[in-house]
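so my prof wants the structure for this chain in the tokens format not the other one, which i didnt know existed until like an hour ago. anyway here's the sequence
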Amino acid sequence: MLLSYMPCYSQKTEEDVCLSNIMKMNSDIQQGKVNTRHIKVFLDCFIDHTNNVEILEFRNSVLFKLMEYCPEEFICLMSKKNTDILSNVCQNIENPIHDNINLYKIYNQILITSSDSDVKTEILDSLKEAIAKNNSK
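here's what i got, hopefully its the right format
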């Protein structure tokens, strides 16, 4: 008796990997154990194109938590990312998913970081845009 052998592979999609990285970043922030490697991997999720609304909302929420709790590290690592990631991050900042985000607090925390890079300026401009949109509601 000859049985046909067909391997079964359980492959993770880019979306699965991205969600896993977002969840790890969220957990790190909640535990106060954020590290550079996890921030880099999380920021790389902004190059992935997903249509999954839940993942996009979760990523947006975690982005604001990261800026609030680790502004120095966030600006430092964003300065090393490519322009596509910067553009996507800025777009997310300009359109926060939740109304309960303290944009003023985050703006001030980013403002006082030691960086004087163009990336910091772009992030601050995006936060100003988000604040303006929030104030016009």
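also thought this was worth mentioning. The radius of gyration is 18 Å.
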